[in-house]
Amino acid sequence: MSRIRGSLASSFYGHLARAAHAGGGLLAFALAASLWLGSGAKAQETQMIYPGSMAVTGFPGTVIPNLDAGLPPGVDPVDETFIDTTRATLRVFDVSHLGGPAAGQLVFTPPPFEVTSGQIGEVFGLTYDDGVRDGVPSGIPNLYAAATSLHGIEIVTPDADNDGRPERQRRGTAGAAFMDGQFGTENGGGPGTIWKIDGVTGQVAKFADIDTNSGPGIGNITFDPNHRQFFASDLDTGLIHRIDATGRLIDTFDHGVAGRPAHGLAPVADDGAVMDIQGAAFDTEDSETWGYTQDERRVWAVSYHGGRLYYSVGEKSEIWSVGIARDGTFAGDPRWELTVKADRDYAVTDIAFDNSGFMYLAQRGPVENRYDYSRFADSGKGEVIRYWRENPDDPATESVWVEVPQEYAVGFPQGNRQSAGGLDLQYGYDADGNLDTSVCTQTLVNTGDKLRDNPELAERLAAGGPLGVHGVQITPKDLVKPANVPPFGSWLVDFDGYFEDPEVEGHVGDVAVWHPCEGRAGYYEEIPGGYLPPFYPPDFPPPGNLPPCLDVEDVQYYCTPSGLEADLYLHDHAGFGGDSIKAQSRTPGVAVTSPMSHAPGKPYTINITGHYPGDRVDVGLCFYRKSDKDKGGYYPCCKMTLPLRTPAVSCER
Predict the structure, then answer these.
(1) Which of 45, 218, 227, 445 could link 146 by a cystine bridge, Cβ 3.0 to 4.6 Å?
(2) Residue 41: half-sphere exposure toward Cβ, Cα within 13 Å
(3) DSSP code per residue over 432-492
(4) SUPFAM superfamilies, from UniProt (predicted)?
(5) Is the dihedral of CA 282, 286, 290, 293 positive or negative?
């Protein structure tokens, strides 16, 4: 079996000829870059996801089976070209060492972990869970990938000419089936399947299945760590599915019917259209025949943040959100957030938030599917932008978000708008390109096409590697336009390590980074909250007429990378002489911890977890003298309970 490493089967022989006459240096460069592609995905004995690991989806490439036997005269090679089920549709890269300062160069990483299209089919959306295994945090998450039609729909009928290959079909016909590698059917997958990749072993299993999806696939997926559940958008029906941690579908939210009226828009129910690959109306090159739900109710991206599920709708993209209630259900309070302001009305296929309150959006061009596998999206005009909330809110504007977003330069082609529709936040990098996990969400990663293709800059770019790069751009998040134009302040990673297909479009998909944030780096803005007057437990009344031993002067709340933090400003009002404090939760199900026990000054910091935003949390405080405790046995402890009014904002972890 001979494999075509480029994606254009019709130009395979041209690629071969050009490679034979290519300069030795460039050819050796390309070969060295592709060495890691020699082995397929294998389960590992140790973990395959680490802090900073970057997962990327994309088209796996094509193959002509039995090509060594030759093709009959007059046969178009494209008609005999199929998805290569032995090549990866998902790769997990180690991008912890980028080899030097950013200069717009291609970065060569260690061999990535791979999952092939034969295992899971073609996938787009990605998310990680929280790494809880058997109820115990492990620090190693699992990765989830969702079936997609964004890399084309290919169909076949059984072999009719005895050449050992099925027959490719452009139009729907009796007996048609999805091509191998389209939806991972050999492992029981379909267009509504979400796959789980174990973060320790790398083993792949079907996690969940929206079995009513006829072929359009899933827009994107996200994980809610507060309730340990997932949300997935269904491009067939427009529904957002809520899925528990075991993969069980629980319920749905219908934006078209329940969401639109909240903004004065008429409800739009699903028209019931489905993808019928055996019907004469189906056309592989016309996505209008694929059974997508109507544009007005078509949900693409989903992202859980701050106790709400944010999602994008339609080609002229609107961003909406709906609250997630205490019990994890949809709260029934859909809210229009903004209508995306960009040059093109392209779908937003990914949403991410950093720990400073910025919302990042990635556009992807309209769905296409060239029969020769060359193009799956209208590329070259998609933007990567970010919004932030008005502070204070401008009552003259309809949205609470700023009207005009900031934009990033993506790729070197004219206009720098090469977004392929995927983005996420990454840790920071030092001046030498080494990952710095002490700095959270400091870097933007986004997928793009033709990232190093610009003839006017070819000479300068050549020093940084091949020009035909389709993959991920890594950029410090502060470098918004006009900075970093052209993006020589970024690093680039190619998805598949082949550089002979500079003209393909839409072959890269989503990107997701595992970036658990720890410590106190990267506060949000201070968030509003409060407290009620403290009280003594009934079994510990204040002695005589003494005032309370502790006076609460103020409580300030912050969202930190590790969750909600409260700074307690306390005063030894009664002159008790204590120098230490111990905190304990008095509210069932809520944990209160502190990095300190000895508290000689201000503030006394506690972390609160397990509560629902806006809940009252009772914190028991024991104020004592460390010297008394050190003597052993019973020691005097002035006890009080401080009722905290936690902010109605959920902090990302």
Answers:
(1) 218
(2) 25
(3) TSBEETTS-S-EEEEEESSTT--GGGHHHHHTTS-S---EEEEEETT--TTTTSS-TTSEE
(4) Calcium-dependent phosphotriesterase
(5) negative
Q: Name the pairing type of β-strands 428-429 and 435-436.
A: antiparallel
Residue 39 included in any domain = no
If one counts the domains in the chain, the total is 2
Ramachandran region, residue 89 (left: φ > 0; alpha: ψ -120 to 50; beta: rest): alpha
Q: Taking the mean position of all CA atoms in its chain, how far away is CA 343?
A: 24
Asked if 366 contacts 315 with a C-beta cutoff of 8 angstroms, the reply is: yes
* Closest-CA residue to 521 (of 612, 447, 439): 439
Per-residue confidence (pLDDT) for residue 7, from 0 to 100: 45
Rounded to two decimals, the pTM is 0.80
> Do 582 and 497 lie in a common domain?
no
Q: Which CATH number does the domain housing residue 299 bear?
A: 2.120.10.30
Q: How far apart are CA 641 and CA 535, in angstroms?
A: 5
Claim to verify: residue 437 and residue 486 sit in the same structural domain: yes
| 26: its two tokens | 């460039």
The reply to whether 22 falls in a domain is no
Q: Which of 492, 514, 536 is the last residue of a domain?
A: 514
Q: Which of 514, 535, 551 is the last residue of a domain?
A: 514
Structural domain for 309, as ranges: 53-514
> Can the peptide bond before residue 405 be classed as cis, meaning omega within 30 degrees of 0?
no
Find how far residue 95's CA is from the centre of its chain. 16
User: Considering just the CA atoms, what is the radius of gyration of the chain in Å?
Assistant: 27
Neighbouring CB atoms inside 10 A of 455's CB total 11
User: Same structural domain for residues 293 and 327?
Assistant: yes
Distance of CA 425 to the CA centre of its chain: 8
Dihedrals phi, psi of 637, to nearest 5 degrees: -140, 120
**Do 267 and 293 have their domain in common?**
yes
- At 324-346, the pLDDT tens digits run 887 899 999 999 999 999 999 99
- Flag whether pLDDT at 8 surpasses 50: no
